[in-house]
Amino acid sequence: MRWFYGAAKAAEASGDTKKARAYFDQLARLTRHADGDRAELRDLKKQLASNDVIGIRASVALVGLGLALLVATARADPTDEAPGEARLDPDFAAGKVAIEAKDWNAAIKALSSAALRDTRNPDIQNYLGYAYRHTGQLDLAFRHYQRALQLDPRHRGAHEYVGEAYLLANNLAKAEEHLAALQRICLVPCEQYEDLKKAVAEYRRRGGK
C-alpha cells in the first residue's frame, strides 16, 4: 500500500486530480480490508470510510500518517531490489497495487507504461514477468524475467520467479539452475532461495523429473 500512496502523491503533485482521486479511492478500499487491532489503524479505517474526509490532499496525508501500520498487512509477492525514482512512478505504483489485488491485466497495462519510461529497472521487468505468468502467458513472462536478469544478474526475485515459471513449463533442469544461482547469491539463507527450493521439492514430490 505504501507504493500506492506514492502514486497518489505523485499524481496530485502533477496536477492530475482525477488520477489521484482514483488512486486514493482504491487505497481506501484496500485499507478497509486490512487487518489490525491497533487504535491508530482502527481510527484510520474509520476516517477513510467517513464522508467527512474532504479533498485529495487531506485524504492522502491521512493515509500517510497511518501507512507505517499497514505495510505488513498487504504486500505484493515480488519485492523491489533496485533503488531509484521509478518507485515514485504512478504507473509502477498502480501496477504493484493491481498485483496485490490479483488484477493481472491491469498490472500489465500499468507496468508496461512504467517500463516505457524506465527501460533499465529490473524490478519493473520482474513484476511484469510475474503478472504475465499468472495470465498463463509463459513466453512473455520468460522474456521479462530474462530482461530483469540482464539488467541485474543477482536479482533474487527474478531468479526465484523464473525458476517457478520453469517448473510450470516442466523444465526442472532450468529451475534448478536458478536455484543454484540463488544459493551462490545468498551468502546466508534467503527467502527467495528457500521458496524456490520448496517449489522444486514439491515438483519432485508430485512426480516431476
Topology:
Blueprint: H1 2-13, H2 17-32, H3 39-49, H4 56-66, H5 90-100, H6 104-117, H7 122-134, H8 138-151, H9 156-168, H10 172-185, H11 191-205
Helix pairs in contact: 1-2, 1-4, 1-5, 2-3, 2-4, 3-4, 5-6, 6-7, 7-8, 7-9, 8-9, 9-10, 9-11, 10-11
Describe this structure in words.
The protein is elongated. The protein has 209 residues and is mainly α. α1 runs antiparallel to α4. The chain has 2 domains: 2-69; 102-205, Alpha Horseshoe (Serine Threonine Protein Phosphatase 5, Tetratricopeptide repeat). It has 11 helices and no strands. It starts with a helix and ends with a helix.
- Helix and strand pattern: HHHHHHHHHHH
Shape: elongated
Helical region count? 11
CATH architectural grouping of the largest domain: Alpha Horseshoe
Annotated CATH homologous superfamily of the largest domain? Tetratricopeptide repeat domain
Question: Which topology of the largest domain does CATH recognise?
Answer: Serine Threonine Protein Phosphatase 5, Tetratricopeptide repeat
Question: How many distinct beta strands?
Answer: 0
Give the uncertain stretches in residue-range form.
40-45, 47-76
What keyword list fits this structure?
Serine Threonine Protein Phosphatase 5, Tetratricopeptide repeat, mainly alpha, 2 domains, 209 residues
Short description:
With 209 residues, the chain is mainly alpha-helical. It is 69% helix and 0% strand.
